[in-house]
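HOLO CASE FILE
Compound: zinc ion
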Amino acid sequence: MCPFRAGSAYGRGVAIPTTITCVDCGGVCSLISYEPDEGWEPGDIVAFRCRDCLDRWDVELTAEDICD
Ligand SMILES: [Zn+2]
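Model generated. C-alpha cells follow.
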C-alpha cells in the first residue's frame, strides 16, 4: 500500500508525493519539480522546498514512491 496515494495524483495515473515533512523544522515541503514527459520513474530526482525554512530537499524516487 502506497503511503502517498492520498492527495497526490497526476494525469498519467502515476502518483508521487506532493508534499513531504521537513526534516529540519517539521514544516511542509512542497514539490517544485515538474513531471517529465515520460512520467515519473524510480531513480528520478524530485525537489521539494520547505514553506517554513525554505530549505530545498532533493529526493530520489523509489518504486515504493510511485503508485499506479
Ligand atoms: Zn523546514
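CASE NOTES: The chain has no helices and four strands. Residues 1-68 form a domain with the N-terminal domain of TfIIb fold (CATH 2.20.25).
CLOSED: yes
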